[in-house]
Structure formats: structure tokens, C-alpha cells
Design brief:
The protein is mostly beta strands. Helices cover 14% and strands 44% of the residues.
């Protein structure tokens, strides 16, 4: 026999507990909703009150006058779905260069539990006396006017020639080709061409619409001139569409070292022009270019003129050699230079430590420090530097050797002086025997003068001879020996 399984369900107690929890939740929600509605309403009313009172302050900035403000307030919408707003206590007080403005906004809050359900707040502002504001008409009139100009190239016509437009707008121009031209190109002001109408982009600054075209310069009748007969072959030149006289300018230009004559356009239209050209002194390799011409001797003939063009004459300057000759102990940098006619060149002169630069000459130049700048070069020329040895210290001496005869009376006084005087002299008083006087100098040469007298006391000698009494010394011959002969008496002197 098979037994049944046990079954269980939700009891009555659980159902009652669930119902109680649900009741609490519904009640709490209702309470929250009850508080939420007054809060939202109060927030909305405050926002609308702020907006209205702020509008009053803005009115005051344009017209800080109490009567004017009150008049504007009267036209404002004061009702809302929840309440009605009132602007009161409008006040304008002059306060030393500014107007102090204040206003109060009042409304009723039905959710307040007190007997007084009125709410309000006050806003204030200060308007400087020198504040000025433009009206709409003034603002519109002050929008900058921008000029769109035109530049119609040869063979084109742009109409109108210019226009004044407002900032941010665009404008149209009619652009057409003249007779004898093709390939119209229009550009500028970020525009586009549709047919013969060119529409600019948005204009934000002054700009220019430009046009260009290509001239059909085919000389159909082979007469060497592009004229109405080429534009309207086989037609009567009296017909208005064939009245064609091209206006082209040929500009002659002579670069340095060249000449051209005449110096202005000698012709008109498409006719061939002829110029005489030449070289000036110091130039070579004459060359002429431009306007499809050819050079024969000194005559340049253009081709048929079908557009503005320039005839340009150029040449190369002659080149001359500037060479150098450096004196002892000196060098030039560079040693030689190639200089075009009419130019100049700088050279640096360097000198060894043992020499002194005394001058640089040649090529009509000038020396500034160690830099020599030539004059204008018109022929080959040479630079020369001169130097002299630099002064150096050297040592010299005067050596006196005494020879005495007869007895012990052998004392003497000696003085040695030098020229230049910057070398100190030396002396010896009441002495006997050999004597040496040395010196050091940077002078080129030194003259020594030797004088000897008898001694100043007892034992004086007699001076028999001194040789030499003068001597020329230099760095190569830096010493001299002087022979001094003394004796007790003159009779003792050797013959």
C-alpha cells in the first residue's frame, strides 16, 4: 500500500504579517508624498519669485527711474498656477555716482500652517551713472560694413566693381569675358562661380574678388600684329563687336652694368618694339630676355606683343685679382681674392710675436685693427704689409780692466752712463782693480760712456789712459772691454 507525501502551504499568520508590512509601506509613501507636494510647490514659487525680481533689476539697469520701473512692472505677468506675485517697495536712491535700486516680491504659500501665509524677499542692485546701453536699432546700425572689392584681369569684366555688405552676409557679382578671351577663372572671398554669377562665401573681413582669362593671340592673317582682324576674321571692322585694340605695356629694365634705350615703352598694342642695349664699363657677357624677342648686335626686337611683358638686360661684372705681398713675420688671409668690378674685399693681416705691423698699403684701402678693406676694385691690384722686429729684452755689460804701474797709489773713481737714460748708470769710487757694469734693456741699441778720474783721497792714482771712452752695444754685440792704465805718478805711465 503506497503512502501519501506530506504537504505544507502559507499559514494565516504569515498572510497577516505580510498585509501589515504592506500597510506600513503604503502609509509611509502617503506621508512622504504629503510632504513632497508642499516642498515642490515652495521651490517653484521661490524660483518664479526670483525670476520676477531679477527682471526688475534688469529693467533698472536700463532705466534707473522709479516711475519707469513701476510702469514696466505693471506690464509683467504676475500670476502662476499656484499663486499670485506682487512687486512692491520699488526704490531708486541716488548715491554719489550710482543709483541704488531695490524691490520686494511677495506671494502666498497655501501650505503654511500659520495664519500668515505670506512669503517675500528683497533684491538690490547698484547702477553706475555712466552705464549706457544700445537699443536694438543701434545694435543693428553698428554691425560692421565690410568692403568686397574686385580686380578684373585682362579680358574680363566684373559688375559691380565693389559692394558694401554686412558682416556675416554674402554677395553676388556678374563676371563676363571680353571678345577674344577664353578660360574664365574667378576666385577670392571663398566664393563659387555658377555660369556668369560669382557668389562669395560668408563675409567676415574685407576681401577681393579677382578674375583672369586667356587671350587667344592667334595671328590668323599672318600680318605680324594681333588685332581686330584676328578676332573677327572676314568681318567688317566697323562692327561693334570687332572694335578690338589690345593695350599691352612693355617695360624695359636695365640691370647693373647695362643700358637700354628707350627707357619707356616705345609702342602700343601688340606692335613689335625695338630697343638699343649696351654694356657699361667693367661688365661683359651682355644678355637680353623677355617679350619673345631676339638680339642682333646691340638691337633687341620683341615678338608680337600679346600680353604685358618686360624686357630685361643683364651682364656679368669683370673679375679682378687682388694679390698680396706679406712683409717679414706677417701673413694675409686670404692670400688672393677674385673681386667683381665695383666690389671690395676685406683681408685679415696676422703678425708673428717677434714682429710689429707698421702698415698695409694698396688697392686704395684702409686698415682698421687687423682688417684691411680695399677700395672699389676696378682693376688688378696688390696689397703689401710692412713690419719691423718687435722689441726684446737683452743683457749687456761694460767690463773695465785696470793695469797699474809704480807703487801702491792705485785708487780711482769710474762712472758709466747709458743712452737711453732709462738704463741706470753705475759708478765706483776710490776703488782699484777690475770693474764690471751690467744692464738689461729692450732698446734696439745702447750707447755707453765711460769716464775715469783720480780717487777722492789718499792713495790716488794717476790716470794714464782709458780706451774706449764710448761704446755702441746691441743684442748682437752686447759687451765691451775697457782698458784702464793707472800709475803712481805720470812718469810711471808706460810710454
Amino acid at each position: 500500500m503506497q503512502s501519501r507525501s506530506k504537504e505544507r502551504g502559507v499559514g494565516l499568520v504569515e498572510v497577516l504579517i505580510g498585509a501589515l508590512i504592506l500597510a506600513f509601506a503604503v502609509t509611509g509613501t502617503a506621508v512622504l508624498l504629503g510632504d513632497w507636494v508642499p516642498t515642490v510647490n515652495d521651490s517653484s514659487n521661490r524660483t518664479q519669485a526670483i525670476n520676477r525680481n531679477t527682471s526688475v533689476m534688469e529693467i533698472a539697469r536700463f532705466s534707473p527711474d522709479q516711475a519707469a520701473i513701476v510702469g514696466e512692472v505693471a506690464t509683467m505677468e504676475m500670476n502662476s498656477p499656484a499663486t499670485t506675485f506682487t512687486i512692491t517697495n520699488v526704490s531708486v536712491v541716488d548715491n554719489d555716482g550710482a543709483d541704488d535700486v531695490s524691490a520686494k516680491v511677495v506671494w502666498t504659500d497655501p501650505y503654511l500652517t500659520s495664519d500668515n501665509k505670506e512669503r517675500s524677499f528683497t533684491l538690490s542692485t547698484s547702477v553706475p551713472d555712466d552705464d549706457e546701453y544700445l537699443g536694438l536699432a543701434d545694435l543693428v546700425s553698428n554691425v560692421p560694413q565690410i568692403t568686397v572689392s574686385t580686380n578684373a584681369g585682362s579680358g574680363t569684366v566684373i559688375s559691380p566693381s565693389s559692394q558694401e555688405v554686412l558682416y556675416g552676409s554674402s554677395v553676388e557679382f556678374d563676371v563676363n569675358l571680353q571678345l577674344g578671351y577664353y578660360d574664365l577663372v574667378v576666385f577670392g572671398c571663398n566664393g563659387t562661380l555658377s555660369g556668369s554669377v560669382y557668389t562669395t562665401g560668408t563675409i567676415v573681413s574685407n576681401c577681393t574678388v579677382e578674375s583672369s582669362a586667356t587671350l587667344d593671340t592667334t595671328d590668323t592673317d599672318d600680318d605680324g600684329v594681333y588685332d581686330w582682324q584676328d578676332v573677327c576674321p572676314g568681318q567688317d571692322d566697323n562692327s561693334s563687336e570687332c572694335q578690338f585694340t589690345p593695350s599691352y605695356v612693355v617695360t624695359p629694365t636695365a640691370e647693373p652694368g647695362t643700358s637700354i634705350s628707350p627707357t619707356s615703352d616705345p609702342g602700343s598694342g601688340s606692335a613689335v618694339r625695338t630697343f638699343t642695349v649696351g654694356l657699361t664699363t667693367g661688365y661683359q657677357n651682355l644678355s637680353v630676355d623677355g617679350c619673345g624677342g631676339t638680339l642682333s648686335g646691340n638691337t633687341y626686337t620683341t615678338g608680337v606683343i600679346n600680353q604685358d611683358c618686360t624686357v630685361t638686360v643683364t651682364a656679368d661684372p669683370l673679375i679682378y685679382t687682388v694679390s698680396t705681398s706679406a712683409g717679414s713675420g706677417s701673413t694675409f688671409s686670404p692670400e688672393t681674392a677674385q673681386v667683381p668690378y665695383g666690389g671690395s674685399r676685406q683681408f685679415t693681416v696676422s703678425v708673428d710675436a717677434d714682429y710689429v705691423l707698421t702698415g698695409v698699403s694698396g688697392c686704395s684701402g684702409q686698415l682698421n685693427g687687423s682688417v684691411y678693406t680695399t677700395g672699389v676694385i676696378t682693376s688688378d691690384c696688390n696689397l703689401t704689409s710692412t713690419t719691423e722686429p718687435a722689441a726684446q729684452d737683452w743683457s749687456g755689460s761694460v767690463n773695465i780692466s785696470q793695469a797699474h804701474y809704480g807703487g801702491s797709489q792705485n785708487k780711482f773713481t769710474v762712472n758709466v752712463t747709458f743712452n737711453p737714460g732709462s738704463i741706470a748708470s753705475c759708478s765706483r769710487v776710490n776703488s782699484s782693480g777690475n770693474f764690471s757694469c751690467g744692464f738689461t734693456t729692450d732698446a734696439t741699441s745702447v750707447t755707453a760712456t765711460i769716464s775715469v778720474q783720480t780717487g777722492g783721497g789718499s792713495g790716488n792714482a794717476t790716470i794714464c789712459s782709458v780706451s774706449p771712452t764710448t761704446a755702441m752695444l746691441d743684442s748682437e754685440n752686447s759687451s765691451v772691454s775697457v782698458s784702464l792704465i793707472t800709475a803712481k805718478t805720470s812718469s810711471d805711465c808706460p810710454p
